[in-house]
Amino acid sequence: MFHRTIAQRLALCALACLPLASASAASDNYPERAIKLVVPWPPGGATDALGRIMAQHLGQRLGQPVVVDNRAGAGGNIGTTAFLREPADGYALLMATSSTNAANPHLYRTPGFDARQDFAPVAFIAEIPNVLEVPQASPYDSLHALLEDARANPGKLNYGSGGIGSSQHLAGSMLRHRAGIDIVHIPYKGSGPAVSDLMAGQVDMMLDTGSMAHVQAGALKALAVASRERVPALPDVPTFDELGVEGMHASAWYGIVAAAGTPASVIERLNQELNAVLQEPQVREALGKMGAIVAEPGTPAGFGAFMAAEIDRYEEIVRVSGATLD
């Protein structure tokens, strides 16, 4: 009685395989309904702007709407953990950033997720280098003049940021370390208020990724770009490397990830479509106006290797900053 016939065994195997067959069929027909793109930051910032551009054009290619869902709070952790409560089927995606997926694991003891295990990388989208900006009325017209004054007067100059542990804070801390200067950090509750006070001259400088329009409008002066190459949107602004502050590379990066366990066929489809979106002239122009360096077509594995390396790199950046957020 303990020995099943071959027919019984085949019937049991067929029943056991039904969920797998259903999942496979569902992924083959993907997408059959709207997709949610979780942006773990409030509307109006660079992450939101990038997310909306990608959502619009990805939806056009997939033939289904891609709806942006802003879930702000706790430095991006609230939206990221909310995303991970969604099924791993490709109908919920996340705008991953250097803050949430590289810095936060070192800033928070319990961010609510495992940056190395909980995500399935899909595609690298772009990076936006931090730009050292000063008010239009600032006496500093060059990085050399600013650093000379900072070294002669330790603690005299300050820099604003969107808060402790923000990309602006970490970039400012990196500048202190790389340039050997003593400047005071002034954290704000968001980059918007910090930029407003920068333009008003209430703070001396800021290393920001989202103020390109203010620079282009003449409200702020850009002294240096924290990237390996000059930014197309600011072709006349030199890099820190060119100006003698070597290794001052601080960029916010952005990519799209799914939840770990998402079918490989869905990941591959999304990767192909996102790579195609990034080649569209309209998209490249829109991202370029934001100061973004658009990623070249790549694989999910390549993006995954990049994210893993960034988690390692940010461990040192956060340690030097001394920032903790628990």
UniProtKB/TrEMBL annotation:
One Pfam family name from the record? Answer: TctC
Q: Which keywords are on file for this protein?
A: Signal
Give a yes or no for keyword rRNA-binding in this entry.
Answer: no
InterPro entries for this protein: BUG (IPR005064), Bug_dom1 (IPR042100)
Q: Where is the signal peptide?
A: 1-25
Q: Which residues cross the membrane?
A: none
Q: Which domain of life is it from?
A: Bacteria
Its family remark reads: Belongs to the UPF0065 (bug) family.
| Matches recorded under PANTHER family | BLR1237 PROTEIN, TRICARBOXYLATE-BINDING PROTEIN
**Can you say what this protein is called?**
Tripartite tricarboxylate transporter substrate binding protein
